[in-house]
Write a structure and sequence with these properties.
With 348 residues, the chain is an alpha/beta fold. The protein is built from 17 helices and eight strands. An eight-stranded parallel sheet has the order 1-2-3-4-5-6-7-8. Helix 5 runs parallel beside helix 7 and helix 16 packs antiparallel against helix 17. The protein binds adenine and zinc ion. The site of zinc ion has 6 residues, from strand 1.
């Protein structure tokens, strides 16, 4: 038994930084730093709408999800070759290993690239190669989740899934992202059914900007195992009860939520209330290059802003991240044991 009361708040930053953790909500295209965007633009002869790294960074002032997505899709236009996808993923994976991440389940948006004429094999092979190398070099377990863009049609999503089938064993699941409002989960019922039949895991963004009904819809129509964001669930008490009862994990992204104006400040984020309600919440980075920080930045800034969060909550968030991953039960038990040791050592 870990005596959480023996861990004072001033010991939390070091503990949060070094403890083992999983990241289950990271868009790899959202890890593309402005410096790498410019390097790839030059390497590939792609023209950018911004004259410098600084000018691009200055444009990162978002008013909502759509204002971010417009810039995010433009940034991804520099990715053309397998090596570009490798370089992007490798840059993230090096940071992830340094953050104490032992497992990462990485979202990628193939339609953003295939729409520009890039072959889906180029995308998947480049990303998968980086994941394999991270395992060899850092012992970091890294897997891919193929996301469908919800502003496009279900037919397009179905065609994308079929095109990805030669690489079926290089990704572990499917997700749903992009513009939430006006694109309810029910629009993608068939493609998620097809993914289930293929034995793929299923997750979806819901309740970020969209209403709590999109969370229930993702569970009922799409059969998802986790909800990405889900912070608006607190508007519906019956839904909260269901999420607690069914232990549906919520991959919460605090810095993202502030940058996209879901919450005015980190101090007003509902993470403490989500945990108090008994929800299986955890912290993730979403699009770290755009929102001002990677996973440890999210954890440290959130704990700094919210005095209600202490050692018990730190442990719960990290443990939830490991347990909600799609790794094997045996592997998860090993990581949780390592997490327990890191907290027990500080409490001793
Ligand atoms: N794609 C990248 N980041 C996203 C987010 N926060 N919500 C929906 N789609 C996204
Ligand atoms: Zn996201």
């Amino acid at each position: 038994m870990i005596d959480f009361d023996r861990i004072s708040r001033d010991r939390l930053p070091a503990l949060l930084r070094t403890a083992p953790k999983a990241e289950l909500h990271i868009h790899i295209e959202g890890s593309l730093e402005p410096e790498l965007i410019f390097r790839l633009a030059q390497r590939n002869g792609v023209a950018l709408a911004y004259p410098s790294v600084q000018a691009l960074r200055q444009a990162y002032a978002f008013t909502d999800l759509q204002s971010f997505l417009d810039i995010y899709y433009a940034g991804a236009s520099v990715l053309l070759h397998e090596e570009d996808f490798f370089d992007m993923a490798w840059a993230y994976l090096e940071k992830a290993a340094a953050d104490g991440i032992v497992r990462t389940e990485i979202f990628f948006d193939p339609q953003t690239h295939t729409a520009r004429g890039v072959d889906i094999g180029v995308v998947i092979r480049g990303l998968h190669h980086a994941c394999q190398r991270a395992h060899q070099e850092f012992g970091l377990s890294a897997e891919l989740i193929l996301c469908f863009l919800r502003h496009l049609s279900e037919e397009d999503a179905l065609a994308t899934l079929e095109a990805a089938l030669p690489y079926r064993h290089q990704f572990i699941g499917v997700g749903l992202d992009s513009s939430e409002r006006g694109h309810p989960p029910e629009k993608f019922t068939q493609v998620f059914q097809r993914a289930a039949a293929l034995g793929l895991h299923r997750v979806a963004h819901a309740g970020e900007e969209g209403p709590p009904a999109y969370i229930s819809g993702a569970l009922d129509a799409l059969g998802v195992e986790r909800i990405d964001h889900g912070v608006r669930c607190l508007e519906d008490a019956a839904l909260v009860q269901r999420l607690v009862r069914e232990r549906v994990a919520l991959t919460v992204c605090p810095l993202s939520n502030v940058k996209l104006c879901v919450f005015p400040t980190l101090a007003e984020h509902n993470l403490p209330r989500l945990l108090d309600a008994g929800l299986v919440a955890m912290v993730n980075s979403d699009d770290p290059a755009y929102f001002g920080g990677y996973l440890n930045d999210n954890l440290l800034q959130t704990f700094d802003a919210l005095a209600q969060l202490g050692a018990r909550q730190a442990y719960a968030l990290l443990r939830n991240s490991l347990e909600a991953s799609f790794a094997s039960t045996g592997q998860k038990a090993q990581w949780v044991a390592a997490l327990d040791r890191s907290f027990a050592d500080v409490a001793a």
